[in-house]
Fold:
Amino acid sequence: MQKQIDENKLKQILKEALIEALEEKKDVFYELIVEAIEDIGMINAIREGENSETVSKNVRRALFK
Structure:
């Protein structure tokens, strides 16, 4: 005979497990969030660069002197 768990009970168990994992591994989740934000920033910078004008080597060299 297979035991059945009602949907609300299962949701509650999953929520509790997730909360426990977040509390125990805060540093891991923090690093994941920071990386995700950095990746989003990089993606936005690449897209912006694709839509902007190109700059000659002389102008770039002048900026870095």
About this structure: DSSP finds three helices and no strands in the chain. The CA atoms of residues 39 and 45 lie 10 Å apart. The first helix runs from residue 7 to 24. The mean pLDDT is 89.
